[in-house]
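in:
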């Protein structure tokens, strides 16, 4: 040692912090401590390269060797004197380094010391080598546990120091990722997992959680083996598992609350009461576990509700899908969601599609007995919520169906329900009844005409009371003949037997003729007839006599249902796509409860102003049927006590 000088000897720190130096003279820079730190599990993974004992700084023997071999100074932590005084009775450990082991026991070349003494290994063998000398015999108690374990066998202390020196020379010490960074990564992973787990179902969450754990292990392995970065990976799987359980609990809590809301919402719709529900109170969410019978009771109640709803669904399915009545249901987007075979067969026969609301209404209009159009029927359905039309289908045998439109809401979503009922038998009876009445009415016309003619002759040739009686007979027979004619006209229109003589009509001249014909009636009732006519207007195609009769009937009604010294206006207007004839009065008007029935046959208003006014209740029915027969439309507005406006509208 004195001859060569390239030898480093250990310094021991005995009990009581007493430093024990080598037993012979050696420079202090050629000494160092050989203390090795064990972790809690007894495995040596790290070393402190600087120890301070009683203000004496002792480097590790490997760091002193490193400085000597490489000529580089080892960067040590700086410490001020205040720190050393605070730990006067303790050993201060600095410059901790994680050892990057090259392998287990036997990774370094080793030779027996006795073989060197015996000259088996000449001095040239050790040229340019670093030789560490230490005990390696079994039973010397100098064996230490390292990360490379096999049957819990470790390696000798001298081999551990060889690994420490190798780590310093190669500068590949294992670097601990700082605690704050590890927690930041853990928090980011936890938050990311929580968001993902809450967005997907539990099965996928379990698969993704497992994938995350495997990925974290693979990344940790890569960082450790390739970049010498170490972060205990156990914390991350634990966090992922905790987050998975937490998200599962949150979902479970939401599911329990939803379960409670579901059976509370459904319970009110049940047709009979649940016996299990009586006296049952449960906490909300997952806290219901602590309620007597808890979630089990909720599940039991929901099962009973499901049983009832299954019964009601079966019942409704049998009703909806029966072959007695047709059923169609459209959702709020106009898509068909239910159609039974009965309805499908009817509409397939007339080539009416049932897949969409718009397509259905557009096609069905052509087959309805009521004169309407696509826009009107659609508006009526949504405004009135309930409307009925009659469908006529020509075939080997003409069939009639009643279509009831109605709308209903379920969970704030609107649906349109159509019920189709076969009314062929009823309609046939109605037509038969109308035909019989028509025949009877027609047979009555001949004697009534004779009575009218003879009573007129008698009224001219008699005098006194007899003349007055003959005039009454003439007047009443004339009214009865007019009633019969109107009824027969309506019957012919309904049965499609009314002949039409369509021609180009100048409505200005026609309105003037009607006003002139109404003047005597107006003068008799002190009603003034006014016309509001444009200088010119486009002609329309219609039956002149039928249109004239309709305007006359409306004007006659306006005079009849107005008090004296009022005016009646007949206005002719040119709109964008239509020609409009308004008959305006300032009379008694129509009561609100009568507005929906004024076009019904034989209907008479219940107003106290009009109860003594004679009428058949057929005039407005005739006008509506006659106008719609020609492709027009009759509308009205009325305010009780102020008057009414009836409008005839023809497309240009």
């Amino acid at each position: 040692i004195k001859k060569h000088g390239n030898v480093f000897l250990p310094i021991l720190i005995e009990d009581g912090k007493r430093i024990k130096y080598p037993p012979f003279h050696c420079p202090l820079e050629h000494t160092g401590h050989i203390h090795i730190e064990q972790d809690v599990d007894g495995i040596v993974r790290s070393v402190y390269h600087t120890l301070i004992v009683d203000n004496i700084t002792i480097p590790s023997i490997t760091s002193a060797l490193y400085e000597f071999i490489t000529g580089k100074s080892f960067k040590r932590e700086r410490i001020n004197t205040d720190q050393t005084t605070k730990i006067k009775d303790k050993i201060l450990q600095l410059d901790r380094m994680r050892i990057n082991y090259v392998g287990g026991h036997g990774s370094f070349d080793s030779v027996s010391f006795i073989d060197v003494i015996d000259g088996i290994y000449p001095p040239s063998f050790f040229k340019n080598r670093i030789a560490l000398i230490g005990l390696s015999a079994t039973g010397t108690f100098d064996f230490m546990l390292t990360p490379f374990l096999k049957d819990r066998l470790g390696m000798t202390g001298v081999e551990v120091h060889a690994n420490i020196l190798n780590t310093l020379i190669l500068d590949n010490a294992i670097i601990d990722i700082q605690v704050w960074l590890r927690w930041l990564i853990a928090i980011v992973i936890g938050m990311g997992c929580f968001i993902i787990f809450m967005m997907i179902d539990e099965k996928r969450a379990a698969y993704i959680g497992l994938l995350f754990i495997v990925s974290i292990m693979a990344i940790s392995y890569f960082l450790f083996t390739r970049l010498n970065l170490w972060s205990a990976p156990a914390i991350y799987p634990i966090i992922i598992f905790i987050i998975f359980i937490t998200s599962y609990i949150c979902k479970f809590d939401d599911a329990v609350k939803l379960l409670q809301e579901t059976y509370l919402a459904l319970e009110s719709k049940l047709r009979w009461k649940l016996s299990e529900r009586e006296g049952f109170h449960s906490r909300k969410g997952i806290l219901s576990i602590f309620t007597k019978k808890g979630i089990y009771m909720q599940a039991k109640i929901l099962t009973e509700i499901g049983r009832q709803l299954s019964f009601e669904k079966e019942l409704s399915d049998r009703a909806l899908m029966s072959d007695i009545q047709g059923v169609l249901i459209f959702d709020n987007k106009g898509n068909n969601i239910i159609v039974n075979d009965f309805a499908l067969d009817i509409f397939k026969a007339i080539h009416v599609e049932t897949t969409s609301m718009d397509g259905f209404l557009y096609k069905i209009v052509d087959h309805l007995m009521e004169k309407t159009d696509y826009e009107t029927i659609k508006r009526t359905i949504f405004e009135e919520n309930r409307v009925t039309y009659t469908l006529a289908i020509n075939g080997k045998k003409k069939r009639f169906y009643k279509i009831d439109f109605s709308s209903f809401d379920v969970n704030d979503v609107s649906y349109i329900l159509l019920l189709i009922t076969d009314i062929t038998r009823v309609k046939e009876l109605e037509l038969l009844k109308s035909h019989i009445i028509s025949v009877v009415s027609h047979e009555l016309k001949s004697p009534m005409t004779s009575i009218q003619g003879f009573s007129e002759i008698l009224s001219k040739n008699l005098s006194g009371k007899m003349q007055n009686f003959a005039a009454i007979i003439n007047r009443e027979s004339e009214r009865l003949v007019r009633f019969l004619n109107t009824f027969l006209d309506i019957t012919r229109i309904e049965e499609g037997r009314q002949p039409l003589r369509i021609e180009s009509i100048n409505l200005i001249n026609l309105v003037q003729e009607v006003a002139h014909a109404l003047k005597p009636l107006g003068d008799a009732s002190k009603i003034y007839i006014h016309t509001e006519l444009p200088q010119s207007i486009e002609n329309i195609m219609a039956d002149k006599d039928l249109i004239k009769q309709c305007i006359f009937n409306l004007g006659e009604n306006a005079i009849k249902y107005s008090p004296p010294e009022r005016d009646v206006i007949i206005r002719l207007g040119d709109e964008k796509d239509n020609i409009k004839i308004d008959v305006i009065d300032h009379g008694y008007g129509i009561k609100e409860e009568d507005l929906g029935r004024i076009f019904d046959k034989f209907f008479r208003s219940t107003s106290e102003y009009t109860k003594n006014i004679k009428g058949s209740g057929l005039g407005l029915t005739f006008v509506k049927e006659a106008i719609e027969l020609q492709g027009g439309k009759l509308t009205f507005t009325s305010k009780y006590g102020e008057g009414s406006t009836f409008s005839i509208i023809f497309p240009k």
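note: The longest strand covers residues 399-410.
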